[in-house]
Automatic annotation (TrEMBL):
Alphabetical list of CDD domains matching this protein: YdeM
Coiled coil: none
Name of the protein: MaoC family dehydratase
InterPro entries referenced in this protein's UniProt entry, alphabetically: HotDog_dom_sf, MaoC-like_dom, MCH/BMMD
Entry-linked SUPFAM superfamilies: Thioesterase/thiol ester dehydrase-isomerase
Occurrences of domain MaoC-like (ranges): 17-121
Cross-referenced PANTHER family: BETA-METHYLMALYL-COA DEHYDRATASE, MONOAMINE OXIDASE-RELATED
Length: 154
């Protein structure tokens, strides 16, 4: 079933995960996309403000985006996103952490300029197994309304 705008009333939407993060993937992502010492080198990381090897914040964002896609965006009549409104990294993601993602619909409104669509703003909070918040972000997506999605999905 394809999810339409009407399927996203404000409030808690779902919890996704857990997803384990391995040391190998932390190092591989950092080597390719964010080669700062605290993401690549155990000794340098221990001397950093993070006090140990940690994943790049961009790696954490990528993981949470995939969790959202697998959880619901992949079956949503989404037309894309205009961007991220807010992003905060709150604690380091460590190799071996299991991530759980809580997703809330912060706002859902019909688009004024394109009334056949709605704008759904999600708040996502990633936590490790101990419940420590790792990051939170707010991002809108543009979603077809149910009455306009028929015959246009795909």
């Amino acid at each position: 079933m394809t999810l339409s705008f009407e399927d996203f009333p404000p409030g808690h939407f779902g919890t996704f995960g857990p997803r384990r993060v391995t040391r190998e993937e932390v190092l591989a992502f950092a080597a390719e996309f964010d080669p700062q010492p605290m993401h690549l080198d155990e000794e340098a990381a221990s001397r950093s403000m993070l006090k140990g090897l940690s994943a790049s914040g961009w790696h954490l964002c990528s993981i949470t985006m995939r969790m959202m896609f697998d959880g619901f965006i992949g079956r949503t009549a989404s037309l894309g996103s205009p961007g991220v409104n807010e992003l905060r990294w709150l604690a380091p993601l460590r190799p071996g952490d299991d991530i759980t993602l809580d997703v809330e619909v912060a706002e859902a409104r019909v688009s004024r300029s394109r009334p056949e669509t709605g704008i759904v703003t999600f708040k996502a909070v990633a936590r490790n197994a101990a419940g420590l918040q790792l990051c939170e972000w707010m991002s809108p997506i543009i979603v077809r309304r149910r009455d306009s999605a028929a015959g246009q999905a795909g």
